[in-house]
Each structure stands twice: as C-alpha cells, then as structure tokens.
Amino acid sequence: xxxxxxxxxxxxxxxxxxxxxxxxxxxxxxxxxxxxxxxxxxxxxxxxxxxxxxxxxxxxxxxxxxxxxxxxxxxxxxxxxxxxxxxxxxxxxxxxxxxxxxxxxxxxxxxxxxxxxxxxxxxxxxxxxxxxxxxxxxxxxxxxxxxxxxxxxxxxxxxxxxxxxxxxxxxxxxxxxxxxxxxxxxxxxxxxxxxxxxxxxxxxxxxxxxxxxxxxxxxxxxxxxxxxxxxxxxxxxxxxxxxxxxxxxxxxxxxxxxxxxxxxxxxxxxxxxxxxxxxxxxxxx
Length: 285
Prior knowledge:
The protein has 285 residues and is an all-alpha fold. The protein has helices at residues 10-18, 22-38, 40-50, 54-66, 72-83, 87-103, 106-114, 118-133, 139-142, 151-167, 179-197, 202-211, 218-223, 226-267, 271-284. Residues 258-285 are annotated as: Disordered.
C-alpha cells in the first residue's frame, strides 16, 4: 500500500488563505478559543443555540485550542469522540463561536485581553469557520502538495485538467448529458476519494486507492507515490471547480444579456403599430 500524507493542519491552511504567518495564526487561534472557553456568557449563549450545556461548549472550545496542529478534517471527529458529543453539534459550536467573534465586539475584547490586533482575530475567525466546519466539502484546501512536485509542475497538471474539462469528450454515460454534469460528477468523486485517502482509517484508504483508477490514468497511478497521487487529485479537483465556476459566471452573464434583450423587445413598438402611429400623425397635421 502506498504511503499517504496527512491532511494539512488548520493553522497551515488559514496561514495561506489570509497571508499571516502560521506561528501568529496559532497564537491568535489558541488565544481566541481559550478566551471563548472561559467566557461564561458566551458559552451559555452558544449552548442555547446548540442544545448543549455551557460546560460542554467550553470543553469543545478548549479541545479545539489543543488540536490546532492536527489534520483539519479529523479535528471535529476527534473532539466528538473525546467529548461524547455528536460531530454535527461540535461543528455547530464552531460555527456559532466563529460568528460571534466576527459579528460582534467580541474580537476587540479578545484582542485587548490577549494583546492582539482585533483585525487579525476577525480574519482568523472568519477563515477557520469553513475550514473546520466544511473540510470534507472543500477537501482541496486541506490536501497537501507533495514536495516531489514543483509549483510549475503542479500548475501544468492543473492546466491540463482544465483543458480536459473544457475541450475533452464527455464520457459516455446515461447520467451524463452535459459538460456541467460531467464536471459536477467528477467533483463529487474526487472529493469522496480524497476524503478517504486523507482519513486515518486504513480500510477507507485502501478503498480509495482502488477507486483512483477511475479518476486518473492507471499508468499514472502505478508510477506515483502516495504523496504525488494526492497532489495530482488535488490539481484535478481544483481544475474541475475552476471550470465549474467559470461556467456559472458565463451562464450568469448570458442570462443577464438575454434578460436585457427581452426588455428591449418588450419596450420596442411593433412595426405595424409604429406605422399606424406615423399615419395618424400625418392625418392630424
């Protein structure tokens, strides 16, 4: 079995997203979670919204602070196991906490207490919410790039897949009629496969390795290390999402132009009516 990499830690992901050094992210995040865990009013408020008791909310926030260097997709699962709380409720605690920090003066309080910048606290809180709560949906964010693959190589692979989705022949399948459906199907398939590959469950990893042949050419799969394999899948899903995003924008523009065209047609008088109007004007004059 190939040796597979671990998913990126949340601090690494946020550092890239908001361009703040990882060490500072760790400081801000841990300070933020620890402050939240000790704030009874806040834990009581979050408890009311998540159907938990304040003590459990405090425990969840404390554990997040202690697990910031762990792979992002596994943090919620790990805390759920440690606290005996449903994973969904753990995620809801983080959602409510992140919203509280970004939507209120709480960021300023945390910054003042911990000698931090309020802007940094808000940035980190906003960035960590989707990473922690939707890591399985945005798996490319937590997928590491192999040191064996240069940036240029990575971009070339991604470009190749973009062209593949934009110009390649749609695979013959009953449930695939359009290019958009093909791209959507691949996004789901690659997302599920990467989630399994980056899981700590060996059975899921083996299952994913069996499925990779449906996503990448088999000769490529056989010649790549585990790290390279994950990197190539990351490039492919990023390409698919890029093509999907461009397609949605193009559709939005086309719909807007069509709507404007219809308005012009509605407002434009018909030829016969215009002719009658001109005739009446001549008779009157």
